[in-house]
Write a structure and sequence with these properties.
The complex is a heterodimer of chains A (189) and B (446). By secondary structure, chain A is mainly α. Chain A is 69% helix and 0% strand. Chain B has a domain at 97-133 and 268-326. Chain B is built from nine helices and 16 strands. The chains are: A mainly alpha (189), B alpha+beta (446). Chains A and B meet through helix 2, helix 3, helix 5, helix 6 and helix 8 of A and helix 1, strand 1, helix 2, strand 3 and helix 7 of B.
Chain lengths: 189, 446
Amino acid sequence: MENRELEQIVKDCSKGKSKAQELLYREFAPKMLGVCLRYSNDLNEAEDNLQDGFIKVFQSIKSYQFKGSFEGWIRRIMVNTALEKFRKSKNMQVVDEVWEPDPDSEPDESIQNSDIPLEVLLQMIQGLPDRYQMVFSLYVLDGYTHNEISEVMDISVGTSKSNLARGRAILKQKVNDYLSEKENKLKIC
Amino acid sequence: MLDENKHIDSLFADGLKGMSVEPNPEVWNAINGKMAAARRKRRGVIIFVSTALAASVLLFFGIANRSLFNSEPGSVHIEQLSDNTSSVNRLNQTETLGDIRENNATENKIISEKKGNGVFIAENASNFAKNIVQPVITSKEIKFEKESLLNSIPEGIKLLLNGANQVPERLQYQQAEKSKAIQLSAEDLIVMNNLLAMEQSKKDELRKNRWAIIGQISSAYSNEESASSANSGIVSFGGGVKVNYALGEKLALQTGFMYNRVGQDMGGSSMSMAFADPIGEGETNDINRQERTFLPSHTSAGNIRYTGGNIEDKTNAEYMVASTYSSSDDLMQSFETIEVPILLRYNLTQKRLGVYFSGGIGANWIVENGVYRTSGFRQKIGEIENLRTTNFSSLFGLGFEYQLSPKVRIGLEPSFKYYLNSINKSGRFDYKPYSIGVHTGIRYNF
């Protein structure tokens, strides 16, 4: 979609035109569902977040000043929607954790992206404990800093770092397990 | 260690950052439904606030008019015309007929000299008081959209990669538990979608029939509260067109244009105005009574400005002609108005037979004003002076509607209307007519 076209659609959306809203949704919904999936446990939860997120987008689109990426603006709203739900539904009493890396769980350096299907990667993230999943997604996939994470999740910077490290460790373990299992299957074949 | 972290981060980031998954079509339906509901709600609030504001302004003007112009009737006088019309005596309301006789002895002599050529315009509060006549639902057919039901079953997840060299893959959940959870959710979605479809169908029906046009004719009896028992009301016919906008299932807003007529039949006023023996001199008086007709200079609605060619105006003695009026002449005053009502209508029931209440305020513009002689044939002989062009009234009604088809209803509505302000600008006259009528009409929903 061209910038000019997008700008016109955004303007029409700010006037409440439903056709423009639908066009905007069709354009961005698949990518945003991809974002929501990273912050949810399953597809239903992700679609709920997508729905709530887009309603917020349409309600607050007048505040968009055409500065910066529009996709980034929507993405931010989706992440905030997921965070808001997370804060409401989850127990946020996270204690500071001290984490020491396990020397045996080092991943194979030769792992390539194509070795692990995307749905498996997604399942691995969704299988993390919620707070690790949130911190890992915010830090690794959406580029939040630990300071920002500590603000939006209302935790300390240390806890954010600790959660990230634990999340990474779990993921490393899962990756290794997956690859080992895959290797064994190949050997059997 | 840092490199390890970077590696695991990039493993997930490269794969998941550009992930696109086609959402279930129902997600958009739900978003669209919520946005439409929000728009309707916002529109409803705007309409409600506007209506409330308009009603408040009208009410304010009504009350202001009532308090500003609700004054005691002023001194009422008697005016007697002769060919020397400059000698008009004005007497206070408290003066008796005897006083009149004494005070007007001179004029009576003149009158007796001008036998049969004068028309008296007299005005006396007591005589005046005694003698002047004061004056729709929708089809229950619910259509489920096939698409919405079919779409309610999740199609699965399409995984598309952003990179040009990457082939989209179908995202499959391998864990049995998660698959089961998704299936259960799909069933829930179907139920939820059915409910949503029903709700949406109702809303669609309401939206389809939100507007209605109503044609009405009415017959009404009108009178004025301060009218004496000698006066009687008049029955008149009116009609007009209203537009109905449904704010919800129960509440609707109506406005339009209605033609109405209010007034009074002042039966025998001219006879009574010939207050028997104005001169108090036996035979001369008898002659006067036979040949002169007394007409009131005002009604309870205001002073009369006589305009008939053969009716003498008190200020134009040269036009005074022999009276063509007998003492049995009847007079009537009437005011024709165009009304713009703003009504709130509340439906008590909305089945084949619907019952509703309506109430509101109307702005009434007087488009025709006249005093008529009604004996024999109706002839306009004058009009009331100094009338307020725009007047406000309150309206109440209890209506019944019978549904002929999903779009068409016929109705009957007894209603009551009361003017909130006196229609005369002068403080001397406090004339607030009321009317009780029955509106019948037909309503078309669209």
